[in-house]
Design a protein that fits this description.
Blueprint: E1 2-3, E2 9-10, H1 13-18, E3 23-31, H2 39-45, H3 48-57, E4 61-66, E5 72-74, E6 79-80, H4 82-97, E7 101-106, H5 110-118, H6 120-137, E8 145-148, H7 158-175, E9 181-184, H8 191-194, E10 205-210, H9 215-218, H10 245-248, H11 254-265, H12 270-287, E11 291-295, H13 305-321, E12 325-328, E13 338-341, E14 344-347, H14 349-354
Parallel strand pairs: 3-4, 3-12, 4-7, 7-8, 8-9, 9-10, 10-11, 11-12
Antiparallel strand pairs: 1-2, 5-6, 13-14
Helix pairs in contact: 5-6, 6-7, 12-13
Length: about 350
């Protein structure tokens, strides 16, 4: 019997498969988000030595971000580029050989998701892609390889996304009857939209969400997203009206000051984080489905290391207390657990400890 969010126990295949995704790490800026998908970069950016390190740290799986556009040979037909798929096949085989399970996360770029949100041609292309992509990987071990429908759907129309996702799940299931699918909610896969989602009509599905709250801490200094993040440095966690005072002196923009004040008065701490996770767990318990937090993490450039470790620990503890499997964002990017340089690969042992892992 497998543990289920909210304390119930489930015996369905999805719950059993969720046990293979207990503690993971995202492999980003590799098969997605880089703009360079040449064979040379793909082979050197993340390597079997990294896979060995990831396994040695105590992770049981990786979530591999994959941009569908470089894989598609002919839009609408779903035909895939043989050479691109061969490289991805090699990566999946190497990950399995290292003892890691694999979430194949369709992590599309803005153009792809924009067309999906705004037109029937975009949806048709999406369905065709999944038919061919799932068929390609249907021969892999379903205990080790998982299909994630789409990373952070941007559309705000919940009902349109539910319809698209249901059709995509049906396409996948028609060619890969044994594989477990990861489904999500609209509008960037946050907890708020998860609570409005109704499960698809397929029992072999795990439901995923992302949680970076509070963004004023986790994304301080980031040059994307909300206006104001880029100006912040050293935002504390836990936060109170008193501890946030030092940060208010950094920024004179009235709106940013108000947003940061609100952050402090919200008293973000382990209890506040746990409240958010408990809401997701309650949703899953009532519907009898397993949950997976596919992303959480802290932009590390300007965050205080101790505060970062504390937030990651609180998030991981909250997830595990509700039997929710997880994958931290990310391995070697701006939220990473390692730093690569001329001296080799340096592991952030503070984050390793915060994740409850043993290290090497």
């Amino acid at each position: 019997m497998a543990a289920v969010a909210g304390g119930q126990r489930g015996s369905s295949l999805a719950f059993q498969r969720a046990e293979h995704l207990r503690r993971g790490i995202n492999l980003s800026m590799w098969y997605a988000q880089s703009g360079d998908y040449s064979a040379g970069r793909l082979e050197s950016f993340t390597t079997p030595d990294d896979f060995k390190l990831i396994k040695g740290l105590g992770f049981d799986h990786v979530r591999v971000s994959i941009d569908p556009d470089p894989l598609i040979a002919m839009p609408m037909s779903g035909a895939l580029r043989p050479e691109a798929m061969a490289r991805l096949d090699k990566t999946v085989a190497q990950l399995e050989a290292a003892g890691l399970n694999v979430v194949l996360d369709v992590h599309a770029g803005q153009d792809f998701v924009g067309k999906l949100a705004n037109g029937e041609d975009g949806a048709a292309n999406f369905f065709s892609f999944w038919s061919e992509f799932a068929k390609h990987f249907a021969g892999t071990d379903p205990e080790k390889v998982f299909f994630e429908v789409l990373n952070e759907p941007t559309m705000t129309d919940l009902y349109r996304w539910e319809g698209i996702q249901a059709r995509a799940v049906a396409r996948i299931r028609s060619v890969a009857p044994q594989h477990t699918i990861l489904a999500t909610a609209s509008n960037y896969s946050g907890i708020d939209t998860l609570l409005a989602l109704e499960p698809v009509r397929d029992e072999n599905v795990i439901y995923t969400f992302h949680d970076y709250e509070p963004f004023w801490f986790t994304h301080q200094g980031a040059n994307w997203g909300a206006q104001g993040w880029i100006f912040l440095r050293g935002v504390p966690y836990p936060a109170t009206p008193q501890t946030i005072g030092k940060v208010l002196g950094q920024e004179q923009d009235e709106r940013v000051r108000l947003w940061v004040q609100r952050f402090g008065y919200d008293h973000w701490d382990a209890t506040r984080v746990g409240m958010e996770i408990a809401a997701a767990a309650d949703w899953a318990q009532k519907r009898g489905v397993p949950l997976y937090c596919g992303e959480f993490g802290v932009y590390r450039t300007y965050a205080d290391a101790k505060s970062r470790d504390t937030w990651i620990s609180d998030m991981r503890t909250a997830l595990e207390s509700k039997h929710i499997c997880w994958a931290m964002w990310d391995y070697q990017g701006d939220f990473g657990i390692v730093t690569k340089g001329s001296g080799g690969t340096m592991v952030d042992l503070g984050v390793v400890g915060a994740l409850g892992l043993k290290g090497r």
